[in-house]
């Protein structure tokens, strides 16, 4: 049913992703936050192909619980490969210090949450928010 995606299809898909998973605060950079590598790869493609973001402008942040600190290099390597973004562009991981409420069996298969941020992109975020507003008006 899906077939190939046109440029407009990718634009609309990205708007929907950002609408649901993007940072929409008034200040700060454009960023989409998720733990699913496929979602983040589509977001990266959307930023590049539809919004003209350069690959060198991505500054991903990884959020991981403190009890995964010993796995930091594994986690960073994982996201570097999944997103095809050089390790040098990743910011230092941000550790969440809240104690886990339960013990998970998939401890070694957990790779945290990534904020796929774009450097110096406040104006880009306003552009995206305008696209979201336009879509919302069409749906009224």
Short description:
This protein is of the alpha+beta class and about 140 residues long. Helices cover about 40% and strands about 10% of the residues. It has four helices and four strands; from the N terminus they run αβαβαββα.
How would you characterize the overall build of this protein?
By secondary structure, the protein is an alpha+beta fold. 42% of the residues lie in helices and 12% in strands. It has 4 helices and 4 strands; from the N terminus they run αβαβαββα. The protein has helices spanning 7-21, 37-51, 72-83, 122-138; strands at residues 31-34, 61-65, 94-96, 113-117. The chain has a 4-stranded mixed β-sheet. Helix 1 (7-21) crosses helix 4. It starts with 6 loop residues before the first helix and ends with a helix. The model has no long low-confidence stretch (mean pLDDT 93).
Helix/strand/pairing category:
alpha+beta
Relative strand content: 5-15%
What overall form do the CA principal axes indicate? globular
Sequence stretches where pLDDT stays below 50 over 5 or more residues: none
Strand order of the largest sheet: 1-4-2-3
Order of helices and strands: HEHEHEEH
Per DSSP, the total helix count is 4
- What is the CA–CA distance across the termini? 27 Å
Number of separate strands: 4
- Average residue-wise pLDDT: 93
């Amino acid at each position: 049913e899906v077939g190939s995606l046109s440029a407009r299809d990718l634009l609309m898909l990205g708007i929907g992703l950002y609408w649901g998973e993007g940072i929409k605060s008034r200040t700060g950079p454009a960023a989409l936050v998720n733990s699913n590598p496929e979602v983040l790869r589509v977001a990266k493609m959307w930023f590049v192909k539809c919004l003209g973001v350069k690959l060198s402008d991505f500054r991903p942040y990884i959020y991981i619980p403190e009890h995964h600190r010993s796995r930091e290099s594994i986690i960073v390597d994982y996201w570097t490969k999944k997103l095809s973004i050089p390790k040098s562009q990743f910011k230092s991981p941000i550790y969440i210090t809240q104690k886990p409420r339960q013990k998970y069996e998939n401890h070694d298969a957990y790779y945290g949450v990534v904020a796929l941020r774009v450097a110096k992109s406040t104006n880009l975020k306003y552009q995206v928010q305008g696209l979201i507003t336009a879509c919302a008006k069409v749906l009224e």
